[in-house]
């Protein structure tokens, strides 16, 4: 992965690894000479320890002597997201953060070395790639993947940024078409105005960015983009609707707002109508209760002022005749109909108590 200008550095790496290998062979020879018998498992552990030491030395030298022409690959992520290191390790290899070994792959299985990466670092046995999840700002730094099967080490510079806020666009005033794009969190965020596919205006680390659109450009496509090195979010603008003659202002009523207002008005009117009907029914009910009381009062008054009534038994005959009214008293047992001539002076006068 190094350029031709770094052949001397590569030679230095190889020399260091040769020295480590010679020292390891001497240690093994002395162990055999002392009469220790190593099992196959113990030999495997010794090999892993030696290879881990080589990987740490390789990473340390890589960090110390990398030149701009052989700089690490840049990776960018957002807080809460994940990032995959594309260099695969299928059988045997390491992943380091700085000079610290955080995980090792042996015989196609990964073992986490640093506990803080226990639920954070994933490894795919199908692709051989490492994935760092639940990214935080302090995860930024240099990661190195060391593939022992090929002897290749690849370094990645990871930068973690906060997630970009979605921009909002409003029109300023009504005399001209001035559009204002705003974001909540402007740190490390660049605002850009696009006309079709061309950037016409931009500003970095500012919470807002305005743009004046002339009438002859109303039919062009405009959008405001909030971006940082890791991601971007866009808000398209229909200038013909926003700056056209039917625009009602910055706080233009939305259909859902109109429906909400209509619902509130209908509810208020319903309450008023129901209340009015209830009051009318209540008044009529009270009037009905009061009317019999007045009628009974008048009946009692009439009873107190009226004279004694006399009831006479009458016999009905088959043939009914009209007899002229006699003068004086007369036996009326033969009559079938009785008439009484009401006289004004005999009527009882009383006033309404209401």
From TrEMBL:
<feature type="transmembrane region" description="Helical">
    <location>
        <begin position="261"/>
        <end position="281"/>
    </location>
</feature>
<keyword id="KW-0325">Glycoprotein</keyword>
<dbReference type="InterPro" id="IPR015631">
    <property type="entry name" value="CD2/SLAM_rcpt"/>
</dbReference>
<keyword id="KW-0812">Transmembrane</keyword>
<dbReference type="InterPro" id="IPR013783">
    <property type="entry name" value="Ig-like_fold"/>
</dbReference>
<feature type="domain" description="Ig-like">
    <location>
        <begin position="173"/>
        <end position="240"/>
    </location>
</feature>
<dbReference type="InterPro" id="IPR007110">
    <property type="entry name" value="Ig-like_dom"/>
</dbReference>
<keyword id="KW-1133">Transmembrane helix</keyword>
<dbReference type="GO" id="GO:0016020">
    <property type="term" value="C:membrane"/>
</dbReference>
<keyword id="KW-0732">Signal</keyword>
<dbReference type="InterPro" id="IPR036179">
    <property type="entry name" value="Ig-like_dom_sf"/>
</dbReference>
<keyword id="KW-0472">Membrane</keyword>
<protein>
    <submittedName>
        <fullName>Uncharacterized protein LOC114851816 isoform X1</fullName>
    </submittedName>
</protein>
């Amino acid at each position: 992965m190094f350029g031709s200008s770094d052949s001397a550095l590569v030679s230095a790496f190889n020399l260091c690894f040769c020295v480590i290998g010679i020292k390891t062979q001497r240690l093994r020879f002395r162990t055999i000479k002392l009469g220790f018998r190593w099992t196959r498992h113990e030999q495997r552990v010794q090999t892993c320890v030696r290879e881990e030491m080589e990987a740490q030395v390789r990473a340390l030298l890589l960090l110390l002597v990398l030149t701009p022409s052989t700089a690490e690959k840049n990776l960018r992520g957002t807080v809460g997201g994940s990032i995959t290191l594309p260099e695969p390790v299928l059988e045997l290899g390491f992943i380091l953060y700085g000079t610290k070994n955080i995980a090792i792959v042996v015989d196609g299985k990964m073992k986490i070395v640093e506990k803080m990466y226990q639920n954070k670092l994933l490894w795919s046995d199908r692709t051989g790639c490492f994935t760092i999840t639940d990214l935080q700002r302090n995860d930024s730094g240099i990661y190195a993947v060391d593939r022992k099967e090929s002897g290749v080490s690849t370094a990645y510079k990871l930068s973690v940024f906060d997630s970009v806020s979605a921009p909002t666009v409003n029109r300023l005033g009504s005399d001209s078409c001035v559009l204002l794009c705003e974001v909540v969190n402007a740190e490390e965020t660049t605002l850009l105005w696009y006309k079709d596919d061309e950037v016409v205006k931009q500003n970095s680390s500012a919470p807002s960015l305005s743009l004046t659109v002339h009438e002859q450009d109303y039919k062009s496509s405009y959008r405001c983009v909030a971006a940082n090195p890791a991601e971007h979010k866009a808000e398209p603008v229909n200038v013909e609707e926003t700056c056209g003659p039917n625009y009602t202002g910055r706080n233009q009523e939305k259909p859902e707002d109109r429906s909400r207002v209509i619902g509130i008005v209908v509810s208020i009117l319903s309450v008023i109508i129901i209340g009015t009907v209830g009051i009318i029914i209540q008044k009529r009910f009270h009037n009905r209760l009061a009317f019999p009381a007045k009628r009974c009062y008048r009946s009692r008054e009439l009873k107190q002022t009226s004279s004694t009534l006399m009831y006479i038994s009458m016999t009905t005959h088959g043939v009914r005749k009209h007899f002229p009214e006699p003068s004086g008293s007369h036996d009326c047992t033969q009559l079938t109909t009785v008439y009484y001539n009401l006289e004004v002076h005999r009527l009882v006068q009383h006033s309404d108590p209401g």
